[in-house]
């Protein structure tokens, strides 16, 4: 069976962008039943920028609770924390020696996150995509569901696999397929339709957090930036209307529908009418997740048990692939 891998950083809370662009799709791929699904909290990626240790531990458990509350079943998917499976970092070292500096320098996320003072960014932040390639390829995963912003990193993952196979004259690592699908592959800020919704935006009003209560969700949607026109009845009427398009995309993704179907139904409505409908749907879909997350967080020992179990399962898949990689590279493995 083809294998799916994806990861989410436990840095700060989950946003609606993470949920619609990634987590909800993870659940779909698990439930679809034609893949083995492997999902990871990538704490080693999170520390490429400094994290408060207690907050990191808390965020990792909360992310695990989020996965489960959103519908990931630890009996049907492998759910684990990256640092508990050391094979990721071991393979990443080899990939650090395969990937080129120039590849890393082209990454837009590196340029954005390092900012003007690249000399002061961590070496880990620069090498980040090589660890990401290792996350995926240590399982020989072929399908990787992500939001639009990870596309360039997945292209680099393919480049790493191709160069490794070429340099060692093998056909060992698969060429992975990005799965960037659905109506909400790029959820935008509620305050600025040209910016991605992100946990690092200083304005809390720019995003919906998975832990927001019903009143907060309704308030943020009510205040979301829009234009004065009514909703169009066809998708092409959303061109040059980024804020309007964003709210329609969010609605379509929450409703498991398409933009065309939503506009066929909602076309002609003013935002004063559409926003309460969107709020109601958002609260209906998100409130049970946040309630269940809070319930699971009452028992951190149980979360740690689930993560420990997931790590054992993940290592069973990763160990033979690392061993084979060592053999190919010329390392002595017993
Ligand atoms: P991260 O933690 O930033 O985000 C996790 C997932 O959420 C998606 N996402 C969004 N999708 C739509 N709209 C948004 N506004 C939005 N914001 C975030 C991201 O695309 C991602 O799918 N490097 C990755 C984590 C990672 C990974 C991997 C992913 C590490 N190793 C291997 C896939 C495979 C990251 O920082 O995601």
TrEMBL record:
Cellular component terms per the entry's GO annotation: cytosol
Keywords: Aminoacyl-tRNA synthetase, ATP-binding, Cytoplasm, Ligase, Nucleotide-binding, Protein biosynthesis
One of the protein's GO biological processes: tryptophanyl-tRNA aminoacylation
Motif ('KMSKS' region): 196-200
Motif range ('HIGH' region): 10-18
SUPFAM superfamilies in alphabetical order: Nucleotidylyl transferase
Alphabetical list of InterPro entries matching this protein: aa-tRNA-synth_I_CS, aa-tRNA-synth_Ic, Rossmann-like_a/b/a_fold, Trp-tRNA-ligase, Trp-tRNA-ligase_bac-type, Trp-tRNA_synthetase
Compartments where found: Cytoplasm
EC number: 6.1.1.2
Highest taxon above the source species: Bacteria
Record bears the keyword Cytoplasm: yes
Subunit structure, interactors included: Homodimer.
Function: Catalyzes the attachment of tryptophan to tRNA(Trp).
Protein name as catalogued: Tryptophan--tRNA ligase
């Amino acid at each position: 069976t083809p294998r799916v891998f994806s990861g989410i950083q436990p840095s700060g809370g989950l946003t609606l962008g993470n949920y619609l662009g990634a987590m909800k799709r993870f659940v779909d791929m698990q439930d679809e039943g034609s893949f083995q699904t492997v999902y990871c909290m990538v704490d080693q990626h999170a520390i490429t920028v400094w994290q408060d240790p207690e907050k990191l531990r808390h965020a990792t458990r909360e992310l695990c609770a989020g996965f489960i509350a959103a519908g990931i079943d630890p009996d049907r998917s492998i759910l684990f924390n990256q640092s508990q499976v050391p094979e990721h970092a071991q393979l990443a070292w080899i990939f650090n020696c395969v990937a080129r500096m120039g590849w890393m320098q082209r990454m837009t996320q590196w340029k954005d996150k390092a900012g003007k003072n690249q000399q002061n960014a961590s070496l880990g932040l620069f090498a980040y995509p090589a660890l990401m390639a290792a996350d995926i390829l240590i399982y020989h995963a072929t399908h990787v569901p992500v939001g639009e912003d990870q596309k360039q990193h997945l292209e680099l993952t393919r480049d790493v696999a191709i160069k490794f196979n070429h340099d060692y004259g093998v056909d060992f690592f698969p060429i992975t397929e990005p799965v960037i699908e659905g109506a909400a592959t790029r959820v935008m800020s509620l305050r600025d339709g040209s910016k991605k919704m992100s946990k690092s935006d200083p304005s809390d009003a720019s995003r919906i957090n998975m832990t927001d209560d019903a009143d907060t969700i309704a308030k943020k949607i009510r205040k979301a930036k829009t234009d004065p026109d009514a909703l169009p009845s066809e998708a092409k009427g959303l061109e040059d209307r980024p804020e309007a398009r964003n709210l329609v995309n969010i609605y379509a993704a929450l409703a498991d529908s398409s933009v065309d179907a939503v506009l066929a139904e909602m076309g002609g409505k003013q935002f004063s009418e559409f926003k309460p409908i969107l709020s109601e749907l958002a609260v209906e879909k998100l409130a049970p997740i946040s309630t269940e997350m809070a319930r699971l967080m009452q028992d951190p020992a149980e979360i740690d048990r689930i993560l420990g179990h997931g790590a054992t399962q993940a290592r069973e898949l990763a160990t033979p692939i690392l061993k084979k990689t060592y053999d190919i590279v010329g390392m002595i493995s017993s």
